[in-house]
Amino acid sequence: MRGLCFKGKENRSIERNHNLERHKQKIRELLTSQTGLQKRKQRTADVEPVFAQLKHNHNFRRFSLKGIEKTELEFGLMALAHNLRKKITA
C-alpha cells in the first residue's frame, strides 16, 4: 500500500516548527479571551462600501499628492467630506 502513495525510496521526515506552534497558541488564547471577543465583535463593521463609494461616486481613483504625510492628509479630507455628506443626508 505504501508503494502506491509514496514513490520515494527513503523514509520521509516531518518537522514541526515549535516556535510557530507557540505563536499560534498565544494568538488562539488572545482571540478567545474576553477582550479578544470584544475586539472581534467590533471588527464586524464592513468598511469596503466606503472605499467603493469614494471611488465610484466621487471619482477618487488616485492621490494627487506625493509623500506619506500628504496622502494621509488628502485621504483624511476625503474621509471628512464623506462623513459630512453622511451627516447631512441622514
For the record, the count of structural domains works out to 2
Unreliable parts: none
C-alpha geometry? elongated
Largest sheet: none
Question: Structural class, from helix and strand content?
Answer: mainly alpha
Mean pLDDT score, rounded? 86
Beginning-to-end CA distance, first to last residue: 68 Å
Kindly provide the radius of gyration, computed on alpha-carbon positions and rounded to a whole number of angstroms. Answer: 25 Å
The tally of helices reads 5
* Topology pattern, helix = H, strand = E: HHHHH
What percent strand? under 5%
- Total beta strand runs: 0
- The percent of residues in helical segments reads 55-70%
Brief synopsis:
The chain is mainly α and 90 residues long.
Account of the 3D structure:
There is one protein chain. By secondary structure, this protein is mostly helical. It folds into 2 domains: 29 residues, no CATH class; 42 residues, no CATH class. 66% of the residues lie in helices and 0% in strands. It is built from 5 helices and no strands. The longest helix has 22 residues. It is elongated and about 70 Å long.
Spell out the key features of this protein:
90 residues; mainly alpha; 2 domains; 5 helices; 66% helix; Tnp_DDE_dom; Transposase DDE domain-containing protein
List the helices and strands and how they pair.
Elements: H1 2-5, H2 18-32, H3 34-42, H4 48-56, H5 68-89
